[in-house]
What we know:
InterPro entries: AAA+_ATPase, ABC_Ni/Peptide_Import, ABC_transporter-like_ATP-bd, ABC_transporter-like_CS, Oligopep_ABC_C, P-loop_NTPase. This protein is α/β, with parallel strands linked by helices.
Amino acid sequence: MTETVLEPVRKTSAEPALSVRDLSVSFHSDTRTVHAVDGVSYDVAPGEVLAVVGESGCGKSVTSMAAMGLLPPTARIGGSIRLGGRELVGAPEKELQKVRGKDIAMIFQEPMTSLNPVLTIGRQIGEVLRRHQGLSRKDAKARAVELLELVGIPAPARRIDEYPHQLSGGMRQRVMIAIAVACDPAVLIADEPTTALDVTVQAGILEVLQSLRERLGTAIVLVTHDLGVVADAADRVLVMYAGRAVEQAPVHDLFATGRHPYTRGLLGAVLRPGGEGKRRLPEIPGLVPSLDSQPDACTFAPRCSRADDTCTGSRPGLRAVEREAGADASHRAACWHPYAETQADADSGTGSGTDTDTGTGPGTSAAAQEAGK
Ligand SMILES: Nc1ncnc2c1ncn2[C@@H]1O[C@H](COP(=O)(O)OP(=O)(O)O)[C@@H](O)[C@H]1O
Ligand code: SF4
Ligand SMILES: [Mg+2]
């Protein structure tokens, strides 16, 4: 089983706003079972931004939807999701409805699919306020204007009477954020919130998220493909691969010394000569494996140049990387042969480069000890 105790990076006595432990989600049909999420754990502290990254299909959205209690009935959920001390896994839908939008809220990639085209944006923000906070129509409208201002929409008193199609994509996303934060939720999950937007607009949206965490202390889970967004906006990063958490670290540590070969592959391709300016997750040779089984092995092994019999014979748990001077104990990787802090990634964890092993490679102590357990 995966190790689960993960400290928030901010030194705060506050409880985590959201605490996910050993979360698993599988989808069952007559013909197959898909293990979309397999033993994922994380905490997000108030005012912290946790980025969740990984290739498409790695379970990022399913993890988010589980936290929102929005998975379809075909989903089987295991583990625990605690929001301010309340358990959400297994909670009745009626309870979840009270929490959703009020204590935990979500913004999606494409605001047009979430906004109602026939209602003004003021009405849509107002409805959330009326439902959760019992505000009168007039008070809800006044508060909606404040919220539009908070998310940086110019001339909010006029804009409030407009319809979604009258706004640009970036402005619509700001409206979605206004709706999401209308009730000052403790946790905001933003699932690819800037993917559909151009870079300048994207920067504006990230600024809004930053100001929310600073002004309201919102804990933010930022799901993204975009490593530039991660570098700009996150405090800490969770790297997911094939439904599992493979690395978790403060953002600086991850970019400076990613330990998992998958992380190195993601970062290496961005930093490689010719890769400059490329902000989206790069292609890593090979395919994300089928999620039909939960192998007792490292699921990255078929794509990893460091793989050996240990990797294909047992599953690596998420564990603290060895602590060099100044290293943060909250840096964890699920790998039998993680890169050392100072180790160059000549092989980037993928393909067939020269292995510049400096002591944590295949067959060395950490892996051998673990494998023997
Ligand atoms: N409702 C569903 N029924 C069956 N499989 C699903 C469902 N939703 C997601 N999946 C599967 O779960 C896996 C993870 O999906 P997702 O979380 O959307 O990936 P990501 O957001 O990382 O791109 C994928 O293999 C996807 O096909
Ligand atoms: S070295 Fe082994 S455990 Fe680590 S990512 Fe590669 S295959 Fe997985
Ligand atoms: Mg997704």
